[in-house]
Design goal:
The protein is α/β, with parallel strands linked by helices. The radius of gyration is 21 Å and the shape is globular. It folds into two domains: 46-156 and 328-388, Rossmann fold (3-Layer(aba) Sandwich); 158-325, Rossmann fold (3-Layer(aba) Sandwich). α4 (118-128) links the parallel β3 (106-111) and β4 (133-137). It has helices at 8-24, 58-70, 92-102, 118-128, 143-149, 158-171, 183-186, 190-206, 226-239, 258-268, 299-312, 327-344, 352-364; strands at residues 46-51, 75-79, 106-111, 133-137, 152-156, 176-181, 209-214, 248-252, 271-272, 319-323, 370-373, 381-385, 389-391.
Length: 393
């Protein structure tokens, strides 16, 4: 949903300002995905990237498309429908996984975002072709189950991301940090539960009051409207004196309500930091129109356009932050090179950790970026993060 506050002249002015700002970033612009390392051997079989639509995960979608353009003979992209909408029959991600595994030209499948039903999708693919290589990024199901099913798993380092998120909130003057989530995320997804626990711990360390609100799961529409529930919840928290003043952060593990959080923050003068998975392209960008850059990695240009749109909205009272590092894109690039290595035989079970961490670090190309084993039990699972929050209002 786009911001309706702008008049036509304000919108035109915002985009003119955005163009000027983007030109000022030209010297440091990232014009494409990371260059292929010299020692990467392009395999005979292709890698398929399964990705959600751009409306759901813009960064993942655009990164996948850019990689396919860079390696047209080695990469194909298959888009499935919005995973947040329940449909009758087998989920598309399972159906497409099976179809790709049946294709003798395909050697690996990368799930650019391992959404719900990915574990079943991998099982369906492996049943057809036991040798198919599967790589998952940021599981939305149990990370332990995904790790058992997949050959490689990459995710955000939530202990570090949570500290960064809460530190950004503290800089904006936060006194309360309200988290909205639901049973499917907190109980059934250890990764999201770890995210929530890390945020709570970071809030305690920063002297910020942490508040957890059990919200509505958006995939069950008969239970009500998740966005409406959040608006009612905020009103209830204010009426019950659970939160006071404007130094309140709104955060949710639900990707469908990010625009609602921004809108409520604008209305109340609250603080918005980022979506559940840090990215510049969700959240604020769902409310304000901003010109997409030539490459998804050029977050500086996108943020310049986004900032211009935000500044043009004189009615919006929120304090807004944005994550400036293209983590999803870099993880996908590292995952692709790792899949190439596995298919060409240069990465095996014996050197998986060393090779994968090297590939992901090279793709990130940032001295502040870290990648390490998820824990000592899951040998094929790695967590990564790069600090990069900036205030845009």
């Amino acid at each position: 949903m786009k911001n309706k506050v702008f008049g036509i002249f304000k919108k035109a002015a915002a985009f003119l300002l955005a163009a000027v700002l983007m030109l000022s970033f030209a010297a440091c612009k990232d014009n494409g995905v990371s260059e292929k390392p010299d020692d990467v051997v392009l395999p005979e079989k292709k890698v398929a990237i399964l990705v959600a639509p751009e409306s759901q995960y813009p960064e993942d979608y655009r990164a996948a498309k850019e990689l396919a353009e860079k390696y047209p003979d080695n990469v194909i992209v298959k888009e499935y429908s919005d995973s947040r909408v329940l449909r009758a029959g087998d989920p598309e991600i399972k159906q497409y996984s099976k179809e790709l595994a049946e294709n003798s030209e395909i050697g690996a499948i990368i799930y650019a975002r391992a959404t719900q039903f990915t574990t079943n999708a991998i099982a369906a693919a492996k049943e057809v072709n036991p040798d198919i290589v599967t790589v998952c990024i940021e599981p939305e199901e149990s990370v332990e189950k995904i790790s058992e099913a997949a050959d490689l798993v990459l995710c955000a380092d939530w202990s570090k991301a949570a500290e960064d998120i809460v530190a950004a909130a503290k800089e904006q003057g936060a006194k309360y940090f309200v988290v909205y989530s639901f049973n499917r995320h907190i109980t059934n997804n250890p990764l999201i539960r770890a995210e929530n626990d890390a945020i709570k711990t970071a809030c305690e360390a920063q002297g910020i009051t942490y508040i957890y609100e059990s919200s509505l799961d958006p995939i069950y529409p008969t239970l009500g409207n998740a966005s409406k529930y959040i608006k009612e919840s905020v009103a209830r928290l204010i009426n019950n004196n659970a939160i006071e003043g404007k130094d309140v952060v709104l955060f949710s593990t639900d990707g469908t309500v990010q625009s609602t959080l921004v809108e409520v923050a604008n209305e109340k003068g609250f603080i918005y930091i980022c979506p559940s998975f840090p990215t510049a392209y969700n959240g604020i960008g769902e409310v304000y129109e901003a010109a997409m850059p030539e490459s998804v990695n050029d977050t500086a240009a996108y943020i310049a356009s986004l900032k211009a749109a935000v500044e043009a909205d004189t009615a919006g009272a929120a304090r807004l932050n944005v994550y400036s590092f293209p983590l999803a894109s870099k993880l996908l690039t590292g995952a692709l090179y790792s899949a190439f290595d596995i298919l060409s035989g240069t990465t095996t079970a014996d050197n998986l950790a060393e090779k994968v961490q090297s590939r992901v670090s090279a793709a990130a190309d940032n001295e502040k970026f870290t990648v390490e084993a998820y824990n000592t039990v899951l040998k094929n699972t790695f967590k990564a993060y790069c600090p990069g929050f900036e205030k845009i209002k």
